[in-house]
Amino acid sequence: MNAPQTPHTLHFMPSAGFRARSKNVVENPFLRQSFRGAMDFLMSKRAAQFPDAEELESLRSLGERIRQYNLAKLPDLLLRLEDKLTGNGIQVHWAETPEEANEIILGICHKHSAKLMVKGKSMVSEEIELNHAAEAAGVGALESDMGEYIVQLANEKPSHIIMPAIHKTKEEIASLFAEKVEGVDYTDNVDALIQIGRTVLRQKFLEADIGLSGVNFAVAETGTLCLVENEGNGRMCTTAPPVHIAITGIEKIVEKLEHVPPLYSLLTRSATGQNISTYFNMISGPRKPGEKDGPGEVHLVLLDNGRSQAYADEQLRKTLQCIRCGACMNHCPVYTRIGGHAYGTTYPGPIGKIVSPHMLGLEATAGLVTASSLCGACGEVCPVKIPIPDLLVRLREEAFSEPKANPAMRGQGAGHNGLISNIWRGWAMVYRSPTMYRAVSWLTSRFNWLTPSKQGAWTSVRVPLKPAPKRLRDMLAERR
Amino acid sequence: MSARDRILAKLRANSPSTAGELPDVASWYAGHRPVESAADKAQRFRHFIELAHAEVYRVSRDGWLQKLWEVLSARHIDKLLVSRDTPHGERALAELPQSGIACQAYTQAIESWKAELFHHIPASLTGARGAIAETGTLILWPDEREPRLMSLVPPLHIVLLDASRIHNTFYEAMTTEGWQDGLPTNALLISGPSKTADIQQTLAYGAHGPKELVVLMIEEDLQ
What we know:
The complex is a heterodimer of chains A (480) and B (223). Chain A has 480 residues and is of the alpha/beta class. Among the domains of chain A are: 45-308, NagB/RpiA/CoA transferase-like (Rossmann fold, 3-Layer(aba) Sandwich), CATH 3.40.50.10420; 418-479, no CATH class. Chain A contains 23 helices and ten strands. Chain A has helices at 18-26, 29-49, 53-72, 74-88, 98-111, 123-127, 130-136, 146-153, 170-180, 190-207, 233-239, 260-271, 307-311, 327-330, 333-338, 349-360, 362-370, 377-381, 388-400, 418-432, 434-446, 457-461, 472-479, and strands spanning 90-95, 116-119, 140-143, 210-213, 217-219, 224-229, 243-249, 253-254, 279-283, 297-303. With 223 residues, chain B is α/β, with parallel strands linked by helices. Chain B has one domain (36-218): Rossmann fold (3-Layer(aba) Sandwich), CATH 3.40.50.10420. Chain B has helices at 3-13, 25-30, 38-51, 64-74, 87-95, 114-120, 170-176; strands at residues 55-59, 79-82, 102-105, 123-127, 130-132, 137-140, 156-162, 166-167, 186-190, 195-196, 204-205, 212-218. In chain B, the strands form four sheets. Chain B has a four-stranded parallel beta sheet, sandwiched between helices. In chain B, a hairpin with a 4-residue loop joins strand 5 (130-132) and strand 6 (137-140). Chain B is globular, with a radius of gyration of 21 Å. The chains are: A alpha/beta (480), B alpha/beta (223). Chains A and B meet through helix 2, helix 3, helix 4, helix 8 and helix 10 of A and helix 1, helix 2, helix 6, helix 7 and strand 9 of B.
């Protein structure tokens, strides 16, 4: 086992303070309504795409099988992908950390004296906080997905991995545009707002020196990067500027092209309830001699950032099956109530809770894994059958068990509390011995008046817990 | 050690010993959808792409240019971007100008006329390599003759599709055509005009790509 590394920290939003941020959202009726409405909408759209329960089940099983097969061969497939992409003329870079990934991307920007980079939607670029790093390096990074553009204008982060601006009402967006976009008057007509975004961003696609995108599937057999989108901004970013840089996590790889159709179908139907997205963009190389457009240079950055830690453990490896559809957050009772920003991580919701500990360490994320009722909805809707509730239980164990000498997980035992674990140890002792159980239960009922009236978080919204004056066994004895 | 070697070493140290058998994608698709006649596939394609807000017109092998002219005139568009060296592009170049529509061929590398393409080309005509019935999807393989931006930048994109080239599923399209043996620099699936629902889940068309997608579908000699 390798020594755990220093965990990455997000600059933009501290992961601490989860409890306080959740409380703020829960107390805001407008945000609550926004999320409730949006999640209900997305859940019913998804349900309408899967009318046949048997088809859904068999397709999910196939999706799971494909992801597990490809993860099992991951190191070999990465090499094959690198080989094939290189042969196709795409330059491959490897980054262990977000800092390395930023360095690679900004290095390419500097080589081309780039002033402006237009970005298609990429959660991995959020994960490495590329915009932050680009700004510091004097390169303009402009989001071009409508939702991302709105969120960037507002100086916020996405609150959902598929619908970044889901927390905003059209009135808020109307005010934002009127305030931040030059020459725009207030309008809350959605079509008009989209046309404003279109006009501004068209000019930027035309001017940009670099286009950046994520990757939905990387195909090893053909050396192809696949992108899924509706707006056409992804195609703009990967086609109009002279240089295209794609960034992806190392797990998004499939061996065979035929693995793509089932996963793609699961992705769009689970994510937004569409039978297919408007565009599926397959890129297998830069512009060839004779071709009249397309970038002259294409780069791929492969990012680890904690994924290899998840990979090392057979159970936790299942985390990497994820195809980032967001269905788990749409169906999560916790996400629906607190929204995406409360988590303080790039990936919110159930998938965020199981993937973020590998990226940020359990020190920063121990609280997240407890924020679940384990209702099981996330596991039930996951298109590739990630057992999210089981993984949450496992991560709770990792976070709250006694710290070990050489932990496999960064931050193992970070949430450990000596007092609490001693209380549980005592509890286990009492419950194992009938004599002790009888003695302790007699004492607690006899001295129940000693229980404090203030019991921490419990009594902040509830009446205090008090042992009953009579034990069950005493009451049963009286009835005999 | 480089980042590459470190990542690979970490993964290799913990890889499972076997990946098991190759997932059987073929047998899932074999039971997925019954084989349909070409006419049924055309019907299904049309149904789904219309749901996605595209317009579809049934045309004949000789008469499509007339429909193209109607589509353009109805929108008062008098300029069309076409390809040279494709049969449909050549035909448009030869015949449309007489009907008052100026045709411009995409013959220059984009660098020399990028701003013009972005600001002054209202419509384009391309062919489609094929289509997919199940999802109402056009398959385009841009090349030297019909470059990538033709199907993306102009606000109106018109596509000529031969209905005999419609496949049942995406899987069927890629396996019967042998895509795994080699893909072009860019291959595209297009299932409607550009759209977004990023503002309060309200669907709006014409986000960044074409605002309108029109399919001229040649439905002749279908079995």
